[in-house]
Amino acid sequence: MALSKPNSFRTGPDDSGHFGMFGGRFVAETLMPLILDLEKAYAAAKVDPSFHHEMNAHLKDYVGRPSPLYYAERLSQHLGGAKIYLKREELNHTGSHKVNNVLGQIMVAQRMGKKRIIAETGAGQHGVATATLCARFGLECIVYMGAVDVARQAPNVFRMEMLGAKVVAVQSGTRTLKDAMNEALRDWVTNVDSTYYCIGTVAGPHPYPMMVRDFQSIIGRETREQMLSAEGRLPNSLIACIGGGSNALGLFHPFLDDASIEIFGVEAAGHGLDKLHAASLTGGRPGVLHGNRTYLLMNDDGQIQDAHSISAGLDYPGIGPEHSWLHETGRVTYLSATDQEALDAFQLLTRLEGIIPALESAHAIAKVVDLAPQRSSDHLMVVNLSGRGDKDIPQVAEILKGKP
Amino acid sequence: MTTRIETRFAELKRQRRAAFVAYVMCGDPDIETSLAIIKALPSAGADVIEVGLPFTDPMADGPSIQAAGLRALKAGTTLKKTLNVVRRFREGDDVTPIVLMGYYNPIYIHGVDRFLIDAKAAGVDGLILVDMPPEEDNELCIPALKAGLNFIRLATPTTDDKRLPAVLANTSGFVYYVSITGITGSATADSAKVSQAVSRIKRHTELPVCVGFGIRNPEAARAIAEHSDGVAVGTALVDAIRDSLDAESRATPRTVSAVADLVATLAAGVRGARQAAE
After folding, report:
1. Could you give phi then psi for residue A264, rounded to 5 degrees?
2. Which of A79, A96, A321, A354 could link A387 by a cystine bridge, Cβ 3.0 to 4.6 Å?
3. DSSP-based three-state secondary structure for A23
4. What is the spatial distance between Cα A369 and Cα A338, in angstroms, rounded to a whole number?
5. Least CA distance to B80: which residue of chain A?
């Protein structure tokens, strides 16, 4: 689709929450007044120095930021090409980038006087981050998780429960992330006065895609400074995995207007793009779900199709609307990695660098394996190591032992 | 241009009674049974029929209507087949208003312009789209009004006086007041609160105000009918369909009559209500 190139890729969304034709506010009337309130509350927080002062203090002392930008020397040597840096988001408190967003949203929820927090989760990383911050700030926490994911991410379910959250196993639909999101929306519609919905990715009705991106953009801002300090110049390429796409947008956004930087998002190709997968941009088309227009996996009648990925965090039939726009404008190149490629990359990084990545992040590593050898040794490549793989060890162990 | 919806509410106003609005999911449990159910509704007492357009991810619906949608999809129901059911219903009934109720994505994928032509040709009179607030009016609402369809908006307990004018601005046919904050079939409507809310909405509009979500039995239907222009029941009818099915969720000889019988008792409740003289 030919679109005229905008002057800047960093000014969206417009006032009605659109990135080009994507985004918007396709929600039930019951939720609209609250979504408009949230937009106001976030706009006020954004320009309040005390909000940023408090958030920065928590990011430093509670989350443990800045996260390091680590030169992966052995991986770089092994692949023979680009100089590969890992942005170590897996070292954050709670083990992934998710905490950056949750901290910001919980602080907004407090400004709105909400005491009850609900969240959806796929891999459980967003649920764990939400449960953690609700414990820290003394808030009630309910996490909706598809029953299939509850089974395959058991360690995170225990963590959330120990943190005091109530985990609801969602039995409706396909019992994965999209159904968890449906159920969270149903809870929200029912408890709209008391409840704040802490969405875990750059999707949903406006202002969520913008707000979550803003909170995650600390990843890219730090990377920029860290790379300048380590190498005296900006990186040449950026790579991140994409389910909804919050870790990717967090890394990409501060660099979108640096035209010389190549940017790659990696979707989950599951069993392969001609079989069951979760690659919405590669295998889907624009539609409307969960409050926004974006690329979705669906059939010819507009019914949403099941996604599949080995990684619960990428197992979603949609993608954040800003990614759909970046795809159509051509600013970001979207690739995909299969379950098997991710599994191989998971083991490669573990053995070469002593870092066990989340299966989600392993999708990004899988494409580093393809791209790095095609680049020269002065090419600086940053990959977002968005989460750590502890939660995946039981699942990977079973697969490697040859069980189904 | 007067729609069947407007004609029907004008008649009921003359009769000084509220409408009984019956919702069923198209294609539940299969297309032919569903058509037979819809055909049976007017003589059982339904004044307006809401035909559910099935969707995989019905975010505002409770477990009953979610399950009905999945049964319908499993039976192969699509948007085209739903419009065909309406067309076949219209062959024998040219007066009972039909409102399509559902979510936007199947319509968006069909193509809005093509959908409006096809829906109008099939005999659809109005649309209720759960995920289409006034903020997105240019998307479907305005084109639907131009095409001569009514666009029926949901107003909810969270729609305050400040917001009501925006919600009502492009609403036509009737206003659908959602009596609870919640999903379909999840709680019981409080008739005193509903009465206040209906009066509040009526201060802003001349349109009829129907009330739905959380009304299950004739007593509740009667109580709500005393304070509104119409009573919508969905989950209870969908449950009656479900309870009539065999172990494999297939229709049985009881399925059509189970819904018709329940509609008759609910409609009797609505017709027994005393409407305040104007």
Report:
1. -125, 125
2. A96
3. strand
4. 13
5. A301
Alpha-helix residue ranges (DSSP H) falling in A191-234 = 208-216, 218-231
Contacts 24+ apart (CB under 8 A), B140-143: B140/B104, B140/B107, B140/B112, B141/B170, B142/B170, B143/B112, B143/B113, B143/B116
What 8-state DSSP symbol labels residue A252? Answer: H
Using CA atoms, how far apart are residues B113 and A5, in angstroms rounded to an integer?
28
Q: What is the ipTM of this complex?
A: 0.95
**Using an 8 Å Cβ cutoff, are A184 and A119 in contact?**
yes
Strand partners, B21: B48, B232
Q: Which residue of B has its CA nearest to A293?
A: B105
A306 or B136, which is more confident?
B136
Give catalytic status of residue B219 as yes or no. Answer: no
Comparing CA positions, the residue from A263, A271, A284, A387 lying closest to residue A335 is: A263
- The verdict on A108 touching B (C-beta cutoff 8 Å) is no
Q: Which residues contact B91 (CB under 8 A, 6 or more apart)?
A: none
Measured distance CA(A144)–CA(A126) in Å, rounded: 11
List CB contacts (< 8 A) between A193 and chain B: 181
CA–CA dist A189, A187 (Å, integer):
6
Cβ contacts of A347 within 8 Å, gap of 6 or more: none
Mean pLDDT of chain B: 95
Q: What is the pLDDT of residues B171-209, one digit of tens each?
A: 999 999 999 888 888 888 888 999 999 999 999 999 999
Classified as helix, coil or strand, A146 is strand
pLDDT tens digits for range A55-90: 999 999 999 999 999 999 999 999 999 999 999 999
Domain boundaries, chain B: 18-272
Give the model's pLDDT for residue B278. 45
- Tallying the residues shown for chain B, one arrives at 278
A302 CB neighbours in chain B (<8 A) are 55, 79, 105-110
Residues near A237 by beta carbon (within 8 Å), at least 6 away in sequence = A82, A261, A262, A263, A264, A371, A375, A379, A380, A381, A382
- Residue where the block lists tokens 């007067």: B2
H or E, element range at A58: helix A49-58
Q: Quick check: A191 contacting B, CB < 8 Å? A: yes
Residue B234's alpha-carbon distances to A153, B49, B128, in angstroms, are 37, 10, 14
Question: What is the spatial distance between Cα B135 and Cα A27, in angstroms, rounded to a whole number?
Answer: 10
Q: What superfamily in CATH does domain B18-272 come from?
A: Aldolase class I (3.20.20.70)
CA angle B94, B97, B101 (to 5 degrees): 135
Which has more confidence, B244 or B1? B244
Structure tokens at B163: 């917001």
pLDDT tens digits for A217-261? 999 999 999 999 999 999 999 999 999 999 999 999 999 999 999
Nearest to B59 among A185, A287, A303 (CB): A185
